[in-house]
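Appendix B. One record, verbatim.
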Amino acid sequence: MAAPPVIERLNEQIAAEFAAAQQYVAIAVHYDAETLPRLAAFFYAQALEERTHALMMVRFLLDQGTDPVVPGVEAPETRFDDLVAPVALALEQERRVAEQINALAALAREHGDYTSEQFMSWFIKEQIEEVASLSDLVRVVERARESPLLVEEYLAREQPSEAPPDPTAPPAAGGAS
């Protein structure tokens, strides 16, 4: 069974993942309202990914014989001043989550909870990819601030319409993907 401090922190991370999903839905809706369908689709997909991360953690805790906590979350930010602000917020959020994931892995190691540490290794890899992807997108939207259709063009060219599932990903509760 996972170490009690790790269980507590994983439950907090479940809340953070669900909150991230909600924030991404809010960003997607913002871009959808601005008739920027590629940006909207990018963030709707990010929302599903964050939800799946939360459900992976739920499945892990269930498999460890622990009752996961499904929390309520604060309302996301929904008003943005310009094209760049939502993407900058997303990057800030991913950097924060990367720190949380690394701290969770360190906590597991500190408590000799190698099962949880191993579980967290996939999330560490995932956060590296997320921060890199959003860092690139921030640079693109900053350059195209006055021409949002250039961002749409970039996403059409550089983002695959649907990535294949990662066979190394942990299972999610409910078979979410």
